[in-house]
Specification:
The complex is a heterodimer of chains A (93) and B (305). Chain A is elongated and about 55 Å long. Chain A has 93 residues and is α+β, with helices and mostly antiparallel strands. Chain A has helices at 2-10, 15-24, 31-43, 68-91; strands at residues 13-14, 47-52, 61-66. In chain B, the strands form two sheets. In chain B, strands 6, 7, 8, 9, 10, 11, 12, 13, 14 and 15 form a ten-stranded mixed sheet that branches. A five-stranded antiparallel sheet of chain B has the order 1-2-3-4-5, with no helix packed on it. The termini of chain B are far apart. The relative contact order of chain B is 0.09. The chains are: A alpha+beta (93), B alpha/beta (305).
Chain lengths: 93, 305
């Protein structure tokens, strides 16, 4: 969910950038785990990817952004998370 | 290993481990991972390519994550190079051994071939060739022994003597054994030998004709019915012609033929390690003559009387 939130926040992100952003929010994830995960989410049509070879310096980069289905799914996940969080807060009163 | 080489090797292994995926999927993954590695190295100048590769994880492990995320079966870890090479070495040695054995069998087959008509014995596919007619002995075409022929004739009156056994020993012989019509033991031989040797001796009840110092011996031997015949030798072609005495033959490589006397009863005891026995009919009567034949390689054949 955090990966999807970060991608939504920045509109589009490529792998190495995403790793840095996750590190910044103390969510370290191994690159060997992240890339297969992004690959699967792309196959599931939650994310879409596009190679950018012109507007980047050096090497071509594969940018990920949310699809319509991905945006919808993230909305549902947010609602579910809010509901669970309310339950958690009530239980901890 | 140079930077490019280690990167290329990593990507090669990753591509190989992703084997179950389509070519286009694999190409996309390889391009993304390569781009990530080069980007990481550029961004973190204090970090070498090897550290970046280590952080990514072993190519087989990364490939397995891709495969599992795709719902495919992860590949099994490969065998260590030591085990792999030991296995290859073992199988290779085994293969060479079997090839060697096959060549040996092919080269030395048949083990023994006896050509009765031409009095010739060929052992180990012709490696050892014994020509009884010419008295020639040949090993692998390199050692040729051609003896001078010597005529060796004689006789011994068995009547009134203590002799019970006539023993004939030989290296290579072509013997024709007959029944003597009298009490005379007679022999008519042609021997191939370098120098003359003592061929006749008597020890107790035994009268011995020895051809152990003779390369080849070709003999007609007439044996009286009052004694038994004992044969001991290496390579022999032996023909028993209507004999009326007991026989105990022990030959390493032999071709023995037996023509029975019609009125005589025989009891055969044969022991052949490699070879065949046929045409011998033992009689159940008690006074049947005992014919014992023991051969390592060869055959015993009975003829019609």
């Amino acid at each position: 969910m955090c990966i999807l939130l970060l991608i939504q926040k920045h509109n589009k992100l490529y792998g190495l950038d995403l790793l840095d952003k996750l590190k910044e929010i103390d969510l370290e994830i191994k690159e060997g785990t992240l890339y297969p995960l992004l690959n699967r989410m792309t196959e599931d049509q939650i994310l879409k990817s596009i190679w950018d070879t012109e507007n980047v310096k050096g090497h071509p980069r594969k940018f990920y952004s949310l699809t319509k289905d991905g945006i919808k799914m993230l909305g549902e996940m947010k609602l579910e998370y809010s509901r669970l969080y309310k339950i958690y807060v009530n239980l901890n009163k | 290993m140079s930077t490019d080489a280690s990167l290329e090797q990593y990507l090669f292994k990753l591509d190989k481990a992703l084997g179950q995926m389509s070519v286009s999927d694999r190409a996309e993954i390889i391009t993304e991972i390569k781009s990530h590695i080069l980007d990481s190295v550029e961004r973190n100048t204090d970090q070498g390519i090897q550290q970046t590769l280590d952080a990514l994880g072993a190519p087989e492990v990364v490939a397995n994550r891709y495969l599992m995320e795709k719902g495919l079966k992860p590949m099994k870890p490969g065998k260590s190079p030591t085990i792999k090479w030991l296995t290859i070495g073992f199988l290779g040695t085994l293969g060479i051994f079997f090839l060697f054995v096959t060549i040996l069998i092919w080269k030395f087959t048949p083990i023994i071939k006896i050509d009765g008509a031409n009095e010739r014995i060929s052992i180990l596919g012709g490696l050892i060739d014994i020509d009884g007619n010419d008295g020639k002995f040949n090993v692998d075409g390199k050692i040729n022994i051609e003896g001078k022929k010597r005529s060796f004739k004689g006789s011994k009156d068995i009547a009134g003597s203590s002799i019970k056994i006539v023993k004939v020993t030989f290296l290579n012989a072509n013997l024709k054994i007959y029944s003597s019509k009298s009490n005379q033991l007679t022999w008519d031989c042609k021997l191939s030998e370098e120098k003359e040797s003592k061929n006749v001796s008597e020890i107790g009840e035994e009268f011995i004709l020895s051809f152990n110092n003779t390369k080849t011996a070709k003999c007609d031997v007439y044996v009286p019915a009052t004694v038994s015949l004992k044969l001991e030798g290496g390579n022999g072609k032996i023909d028993f012609e209507k004999i009326s005495f007991a026989v105990d033959a022990n030959v390493v490589n032999g071709d023995i033929s037996f023509t029975p006397e019609a009125a005589q009863k025989y009891k055969f005891e044969t022991e052949i390690v490699n070879g065949s026995v046929n045409g011998l009919n033992s009689s159940p009567v008690k006074d049947a003559l005992l014919i014992k034949i023991k051969i390592i390689n060869g055959k015993v054949a009975g003829n019609e009387s």
